[in-house]
């Protein structure tokens, strides 16, 4: 039977905005299912594409043919395709790249063009019968075949395509195309099973009998397991197979990212408040799309609510997606969910190896698990039938991806719930202004947990004015007598202390004592931070490193004053002040290695750590009941950011970190040190009064027409050449102004701010400019962007200057 000829819509994994139609050869057509990958010709090369569905209305003459189908089964269900299309449209990002971003990495294959020298070319090289440039090229190629791009780089000059073709025609070089990539693969292991359990075993050796016994007991067993018991198993099974006892085959297995087993727990009986939340959310499940905002003070039992909801959704035949802002918290959430739901939980985050991620992904697509927990990229988990998407700590900025596909997973969770008729539940003790506004304007339903469980009191916050210590020299300026005393009594009671400072390193502002110049990064407009343990100055933006013994680059003096503090300095001070206490530090420097975060958190849980010093990594939803004192070293660091969200971030960070105190039976204390005791963000955080903060801040946003009262898109312009970058930014700005002037519909609905130089004008040798577009709503903004981005492609694109779009930008520096 021949299958009908079919045509499919394919999104190729390249930066192109369109999708393309391909013909599927008859022998492959039964396999060409939506959600699988295909290998297709595209221009001169072969690339991976994703099948989005079957096409009708075709002009068969122009259509190319699929070369291969790359997956045994679909990588994502067809119900996700509208979601992918939505993302591509909203963020104006190539759809193939959207899907590539969603899928586990390392799967795709693509053509790699290499140039190599032929025997004839070698002769010509030796005889030196070619031009100097050709001779240089041939010399380079004798070492190894090479990509054209590399060739250009090595020769520091443009090589005309015509020259390459001429050399190829003369037979001196040849082009080869080789498929590369596809490094992530299913893991298979050798397995054995009995062919016939009635075979006589008399006369077999004991080892053979033992092997057969083991197989019989388990049905099938891996060769690896057999070898562990019978070392010669590898050889013996071959004989057993030859004699017809057993069959040996390959079986797909999953790599195990968990490592340890977790004992199960028993659900708590919900409090009255928790019960109300669960039933309100359940009222929407399976009926129609809705978004609920759960505001629950720190320690009010939100996680318990999530688990109850998950259990109910699963009972109803739905799957559940839980998003958590970062890995340390995922591991905590994962532990609690696995204790409750056992093996039915998949995890997705960046600390998994590509293979582990692929396996977790497969468990989800195959419907083997009903719950997935992960960081922002888990919003793409390939569930068919999502009932509920939970976004924990929804205010957290790590939901925003700041590079490549610049999406916000919190927003996408709501979009996905809407497209799949599910419920989105956003939870936080300190909701984002955006979400709270949506609740106030009835776009979101509101549910609340106002009390901590078991009547535990909220922590008591004491503010300490750092200004009175201005003249104190040394570290006493930052470990004030109040904080010092509180630490002493807390440690004496055998309880734990958390110290928070949102800046890593030892000294963040090293300055030359002789000439007064700050020690600057050579690639960025920013000062270097001294890292004592690494014995080096480091740039936190580009990674540039300089030896700690370096002299001042301006005057050559070796006397450097180490101004500005960081977590490393606090850690070493605490060690001096409390020599008997075990002090640990959690920031990006101490958590680079895989597993290091988990190790620190374990130390907290087992109480082998007395004092933990950390950056915002410690501020987030951790639950450690024996922490009874939180010290905020300097509450002001994020206040002066050139960003309209600075006050919001500061409030959230302070309220969150304060919420780490007193989560067990002993009440908590917080000492908040600040230079700005009258600043509203700090006052509201001290009072732990979100509502008051909101009422204040929302007025400011409305007056200045900032989100949530407007939508923003940022054009980020950067390039290596200072003048060219500036000129292109100006030209782009002029284009925007012209487009606005020529279309009356934009006149009142759209504002163009800039171009301006970015707050950090140079990072990693790239000069940076910005244009900010503010629209009253999404529609005019998108209409305008389409004009700029698609209809004026030539004016936007530039060889030396890169322009990227950031829709709903978060990081304005
Ligand atoms: P949140 O996520 O809001 O910070 P958690 O869910 O972590 O709060 O709950 C805080 C603590 O209270 C946890 O140790 C949890 O086990 C416990 N807890 C939660 N709900 C209940 C309940 N209904 N009864 C008793 N203990 C509870
Ligand atoms: Zn730098
Ligand atoms: Zn100097």
Write the layout of secondary structure elements.
Layout: E1 6-12, E2 20-24, E3 37-42, E4 45-54, E5 64-65, E6 68-69, H1 81-90, H2 95-102, E7 109-117, H3 119-127, H4 132-143, H5 148-155, H6 161-169, E8 173-181, E9 187-194, H7 206-218, E10 220-222, H8 223-229, H9 233-242, E11 246-253, H10 272-284, E12 290-296, H11 302-315, E13 319-323, H12 327-341, E14 345-348, H13 354-365, E15 371-374, E16 386-392, H14 409-419, E17 423-428, H15 433-440, E18 445-449, E19 460-465, H16 481-492, E20 496-500, E21 509-512, E22 529-531, E23 536-538, E24 545-547, E25 560-563, H17 567-577, E26 583-586, H18 596-605, E27 611-614, E28 627-632, H19 646-658, E29 669-674, H20 680-687, H21 690-704, E30 711-719, H22 722-741, H23 744-747, E31 750-763, E32 766-775, H24 778-789, H25 793-796, E33 801-807
Parallel strand pairs: 2-5, 12-17, 12-18, 13-15, 13-16, 14-15, 16-17, 19-29, 20-27, 20-28, 26-27, 28-29
Antiparallel strand pairs: 1-2, 1-4, 3-4, 3-6, 7-8, 9-10, 9-11, 21-25, 22-23, 23-24, 30-32, 30-33, 31-32
Helix pairs in contact: 3-4, 10-11, 19-20, 20-21
Residues 268-271, 274, 296, 298-304, 453-454, 621, 623 line the site of adenosine-5'-diphosphate.
Give the N-terminus to C-terminus distance in angstroms.
62 Å
Question: What kind of oligomer do you see?
Answer: single chain
List low-pLDDT spans: none
Sheet having the most strands: 7 strands, parallel
- Helices, by number, come to 25
In total, the number of strands is: 33
The portion of residues forming beta strands comes to 15-25%
Give the overall pLDDT as a whole number.
89
* Helical residue percent band: 25-40%
The assigned structural class equals alpha/beta
Shape: globular
Reading side by side through the largest sheet, how are the strands ordered? Answer: 14-15-13-16-17-12-18
What ligands are attached or bound here? Answer: adenosine-5'-diphosphate, zinc ion
Q: Return Rg in Å.
A: 31 Å
